[in-house]
Specification:
With 81 residues, this protein is of the alpha+beta class. It is built from two helices and five strands. It is globular. The protein starts with a strand and ends with a strand.
């Protein structure tokens, strides 16, 4: 599966949450990751939340969309709970 993101959004996310989308992509690819629907945060597209461990061994929460065979990362942050 292909993973993509908007470069400007990625920079903003890194500054705000201290998580790069490159790292977030590794959490989405974690074989033990858990993904669920996120209907509360979008009326125009299906959004999902994935909890996964990144290559840096950090538990991340990644918001994303899926279309065909492509995941588009929207945001990522450290899991706090």
């Amino acid at each position: 599966m292909k993973i993509e993101w908007d470069p400007k959004k990625a920079m903003s996310n890194l500054q705000k949450h201290k998580v790069s989308f490159e790292e977030a992509a590794t959490a989405v690819s974690d074989p033990m990751a858990t993904t669920g629907a996120d209907p509360d945060h979008s009326m125009t597209e299906d959004r999902y939340i994935t909890f996964g461990v990144s290559i840096r061994d950090r538990l991340l929460v990644v918001s994303h969309t899926e279309k065909d065979e492509t995941i588009r990362i929207i945001s990522a942050r450290l899991s706090s709970k």
